[in-house]
Design goal:
heterodimer, A: mainly beta, 11 strands, B: 111 residues, mainly beta, six-stranded mixed beta sheet, four-stranded antiparallel beta sheet
Chain lengths: 115, 111
């Protein structure tokens, strides 16, 4: 099946710094990518929908200036957490839509810890 | 609005037991239905799906049937293994590709 690579898998950073997370579709072109946030023992919360070459669509309550999303190519989307704070610590998961089937393929997730 | 409801966990079973995880949905249209599995510390993997009423999705011994009359998509497996321990998410999807998620059900299989 289609593979989505997410990097890094784990990152620790100091409060006030920015962190970039990459999401790549390795063997298919993804016109749409999604970014989710998952709190411990909870379901996924959709943060934004990213379409290649256009601005991301953010869900209500998600700060677009805080969570910068770039989808510059059909195989790469990035999420940058700007000026991270401890409350941004979470598990972030991306998914890519495509690969010839109408389903989302998920990355392995990135665990962000802000000290 | 549309929603997905799953049975609360954790569900604890002994190895080789029969598994059922209930999932019901409310939908205004005709969505596709999915089960995803999340192993500890990992992202989500598609387990199975069904795109229309009466379809049965199956994979790795797991099955679920799209029941429009009862608006359900219950996950079943005849004989679980310790390696099946994970969190299972039921979800529905429309043509805009966004997924509506259930809360997830943690499954614990004891040897």
């Amino acid at each position: 099946g289609a593979v989505v690579s997410q990097h890094p898998s784990w990152v620790i950073c100091k409060s006030g710094t920015s962190v970039k997370i990459e999401c790549r579709s390795l063997d298919f072109q993804a016109t749409t990518m999604f970014w989710y946030r998952q709190f411990p023992k909870q379901s996924l919360m959709l943060m934004a929908t990213s379409n290649e070459g256009s601005k991301a669509t953010y869900e209500q309550g998600v700060e677009k200036d805080k969570f910068l999303i770039n989808h510059a190519s059909l195989t790469l989307s990035t999420l940058t957490v700007t000026s991270a704070h401890p409350e941004d610590s979470s598990f972030y998961i991306c998914s890519a839509f495509g690969g010839g089937e109408n389903i989302q393929y998920f990355g392995a997730g990135t665990r962000l810890s802000v000290l | 609005g549309d929603s997905v409801t799953q049975m609360e966990g954790p569900v604890t079973l002994s190895e080789e037991a029969f598994l059922t995880i209930n999932c019901t949905y409310t939908a205004t249209g005709y969505p596709s239905l999915f089960w995803y599995v999340q192993y500890p510390g990992e992202g989500l993997q598609l387990l199975l799906k069904a795109t229309k009423a009466d379809d049965k999705g199956s994979n790795k011994g797991f099955e679920a049937t799209y029941r429009k009359e009862t608006t359900s998509f219950h996950l079943e497996k005849g004989s679980v293994q310790v390696s099946d321990s994970a969190v299972y998410f039921c979800a529905l999807q429309y043509s805009n590709y966004q997924l509506i998620w259930g809360a997830g059900t943690k499954l614990i299989i004891k040897p």
